[in-house]
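Support request, please re-run this one:
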Amino acid sequence: MNVRIFNRVNHQNKDSGGMYSEWSSLPLEGGGRGVLGAVGGRDVVLAVVKQLASHEPSPLTTDAEVEWVLEVIRFGLSLPLQEHEALRDCVRVCCAWLAPLLPPAPPAMPPPPAIPPPVAQAPHKYARKILRHLQNLFVPRPNESGDLISKQAVLCHRVLRLSRTLADGGALGAREWRSLLLLLLAAASALLSPPAPHHSAAEQLCERVLCVLFEVWILACHRCFPSPPLWRTLREQCIRWRHRAPLTEQWTRASLCLTARLLKHMYGPLFPAMPISEEDANLIPSDMSAEAVMQSWYRILHTIGNPVDLCRPHVISQTPDFLQYSITQEEGTRDPSQHPCLQALPSIFHKAMKGIAAHVDAFLGRGAERWWVRAAGAAEPPDDGDTTPPAHRRLAKSFSVSASRPRDKLPERSTPRTSLIGLTSSRPPSVAPTTPPNSISSQVGESEKPPLTPLRPKVNSIFHLFGEWLFEAALIGTTPVYNNQQRSEGTPPPPSATDAAYKLNMYQPGRAEALGTLCRVLCSKQCREEVLAPYLARCYAAIHRGLRDPATAAAVVLNAADIFRLDLDGVLVLVPDFITALDQILSEREPKLECGTIDKRELRKAAISALLSLVAFPYHYKGLPVPEFPGCNEYAGMTLGDYTRGKISLICVSAVQVETVDALCVPLLSALYLCVRHHAHAASGKAHSAPPGSTMSHSTDYKARSEGGSASGSAEGHSLDDFAADVKDLDPSSPVFGAALVVRATYLVCHRLISSWKGDLQVSLAALELLSGLAKLHSSKPEAIERKRAVRWICDYITVQCSRPPQAHSRDLHSCVVAAYQCLSAWLCPALLADQECIATLLEVVELGISGSKSQGKPGEPPKMKDEKELKPVSMRVRDAAESLLMLILEQQIGNGGNGSSWCRLDERWLAALGHGKLRHFVADGNILLSLLEEPLSNSQEPQPTLIVIIRCGWGRYAWSLSSRGAARSAVRPACGACARPVDMREARAAAPPACRPLPPAPPCHLDSAFPSLEAVLRQLNDPDAPTLFKLLEQQAAIEKRVKESEDNVVPEEYIPPEPVTEFQTARLFLSHFGYLNIGGDKKATLPRLVALDDSLPGFSAALRRVDACGARAAVTVHVFCARAGQLNAKDIVANAHSLSTVPPAFVRMLRGLGTPVRVRGHPGWAGHVDTSYDARAHPSPPPQTNRDPAPAMYDGREQVLYWSDSTNEIAFVVPSGHEISDSEERQTDSIKSDVDGSCISSSDKAAGSCWDVSGGSSGAASYERSASESERSDRAAPQLSDKLRALSLDLDKQPATVLTGSGRRNRDFTTKILIIWLEDFEDHLNLPIDDLLPYCESGLPWRRHEVAVLCVSARRCGLVRVACGATGVLAPGALLAPRLLPDCLRRAALDAARRTRLNTDLYQPPHVRRRHLIQELAQQYKKDLTEPELLESLFRTPS
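Re-run finished. Output below.
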């Protein structure tokens, strides 16, 4: 069944036209007064009815008698209200005589009147007459008191209950159903057709009679479908009652109940159900056929005619009753359209539009989002039992659309159990979206709207049904729509234009509702769906005029946030008006538009979503002329890029500047980044043509107002208008506009980060991620001061956060500080590190992170030395982040890690393959692994004493080659090979005269004899060797005398140095030079700094490889897929990558931009899997030669991957080819899955021995995250634990290396699985088989299901790319990107997703900490217990 079956819309305005034009309506003349009315039969009625009302046996035995009595009752029901008892008895008799049509019931008290035998025998015959006579009861009696009117209402309620009971269970035939429906139509006509006077019976019965009418009518459609004359009569009467608000409410209630059942028949149980109350659901019989539901739904939907007529009082008042009112007035022929009751038409029109909107939302599967409750101003009947039935006997009352905000919880009494519209705010579990959960914790709002159901009808079908009403309602007051309609004879002309303009604002809420509904229908377009051009044109015209009206622009923006994402033809014509509306909503704290009942927070959220779809327009449509409506010439000569460039930038900056809701700041920051990124990319092509002095640093026109040296000072000196004013003053056409915008955005985000956002984790992380992205766009020239100022802002932010009181410290606070340190790493550059002031600021915050305090305190305080400070970091995570930043500063290698060059490929496997001997292995200072080879390399040409040192530490693997030389490499050696004596190039100086003459020798004295001579001592000791010694002394004296005599005449010989030694203990020399051999030094240290390792123990090589398999940078694996339209099978999606013909060219271009192709064999960096990364395979074998066709699957990780890296991160982009399933069993990797409660289970024991779990069998520490206050408590409570944690500090030279029995901190780290999926049909992102794709994303690392991040990418026909993802950093869901910027944005999104997952993990260890723990464990497992003499002795022996 298709909605197109209803494409028969009544286009005629005459009541006699349309689908019932071939039929005539039935007269509703009422019961009449009969003969007694002509002759006066009051006394007869009183006498007859009083006897019939008793429970005595009836004296009526013949049909003639019964007929005569019915005439009496007929007249009795028309008596004045003063004869209340007679009226009551007539009603009792009628109800009793209709009882034979009902099922048997227990006897009532008091007993009902007796039923005459003729009536009991032929109940259907008399039932039709009784029902016709009962119409007299509902005729209003003029000039009656309120008490009597209330008594009449009680009797009418009794008849209405009887009618409902007859419809439910009465044995009615076709003629009886016709009489019953005519009774209800006549009763409603008598009460509702006249203009509504106050304190009348119609006021009390209006709501009830309409409720019973629609309920009985629906039952008649099920049991005896009404004839066309009855349908025409119902339509004509409802058109006359449209000035009554309960009509619209009950019409909405009945039609929505039918709509809910219709959708169930049309689309089955998978379609989102409308949540309605049980009693309203029972309004439609459960066994009602689908055909009856369809026919009833369509007829009742068109019962009230054109709802837009409700905004035209001159049309509503053209009924006989209104004309009679105008004639009978004292003033004479008064205009009927001026009746006071018509002042309620704006509210009724609004309710009618709300009803139509509810129907549309039901077809779109969004019925749960409409909040329907009892109208706050609806009049409830008094609860007095004498005037109205008790509450438990009342039927459902009227319902309307509440004006309250969706999040406002209404009192219980305002939502009765019988309300149709007990619609909840959450979708039932059966229709929950199938999109898998995302690990990103950032949220835009408290609750996200569920996606539209893919089973929804097409846009054209909905417009076929409701388009005429919606288009006409959306354009009221903008075009004279009634001029094109035929006016029936006798209809007065419409009011003057002045009066229409004056009253137009009264109908704006209804018009706004119609516009919002139009936008929701248009934005429900699916990917490959085409909307008819006439519908598009009418939508654009309505939206165009709605955006220019402050009363309706908010409704358009709220419901058309996705209009630029849907590839609608000609939608660019709305861009100027949309930008103007966004400016009025986002540029100030309070919108400049009339919001009415619209939640301002939801409005801002929708405006931000629309802004995300527009940020790429200035770059993408930079040369396209501004599209305009026919006849408009407002933007002549302007291009869309020129028009939107400055406006969108100003909106982004202003919105970030004034936004006070933290949850909305996250997508705003994404919009700001994407805006700046597009402008910077566009300006990069013009940079070469700019004049030399037009850079941001030198241009005086774009000089920043923020001249303060610190963030706090700048925050105090700025008003909120400074940043927006700066951007407003910029020239969008200038070639340096992009650079200027980068600087303004940086200042703005830094200012708000430290002044407003420092207390919110999600916003702080988003701001820091944005600053990390902007760091790549700033100038790195030495004279550029913007980068230095931004670094000072971030350093001040770290200082402020770390200086907060201990009770304010939490995991979220420390996560912000860690993210700030990582942000600083992105801003480092050589020019920045060369600045003394900047490097001092950086080292201060590094010191603060490592030690917990700064050496330089407040001004005037003396600096505190290192030995005076207590090593007490804010938390272990903060200390690790500060260590990482310090190492980056010391290495001075920022930006040199693009190809993994910081990781040396030389290791023991290379040396063994070249034929070298064994190496000596030592652990220095507990965290540095030294491997020493005392042989020159095979390619060395000079036999010099050489030492090869392989250094493994927390920051990577390095190799040094040391050679001992007697001269420099450039020195020229003689033929003998010895070094030549240096030649003195200076002139010989003349000998200086002696400054003084020597004194003569002193004469002997007694002191000389105090010391005995050597001869005397030897003679005294009688030493037998004394003569030999004296002989030697004499010979030496003779030699010295001879030399002294001949030294003036002898030319000295030239001393020739010996040949260089080619073999000696170079390892000993190296260790001695670096201070690791403390020979003869201070022995106060309990343990030596150097520990020798025994490489002969089994498993030593595997332990070394285990250290090498843990990289020094954060490794991320991203798996890329391409899904064709409608593909929901994982194998089919993976198979697309095997050929270029099955993937779109845009997907291939995206792959090329993600990274650089590298060969896995020999790759020194991360390659996507632990078994193939960091040069894991053997080196000498050449790479295999394959004849594989160039296809995306070639980057499946077996031979090649796409690789990207920077100073702190490295990403491997893998395109799965299907081999992962078969290889997983061979590799026997530990694919750690998550069970229901989120815990992790390893399928093998390999995880316990991998680099990702370095517990080493120890119990580990109690907690990873330790604040300052927590440290104080734990230090007092557990000194042993404190000592163990303290051993992990940087001051390792003061700590014993063997204190640790394990890793110190139990590492339970999990990697984030990130999937990039290219979609041909964007709607497929709701039903992707994520769980089936995850087995193809094996990386050998532990992971958890709830930490899987999915980035869906889909190309639009306009050339832009739409992204669907969680709130992953700088990339917000729903953003439209230029294809050239897509790879960079996807990389940043992947890094941000992985970084946030790491911040959410309490026990995450950075790579350098993990490597340090691995080295410590290796030292404990393979160390040699050698004393210092044994260690020195081993250095003189060749390693065995």
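The mean pLDDT is 77. The chain is about 40% helix and 5% strand.
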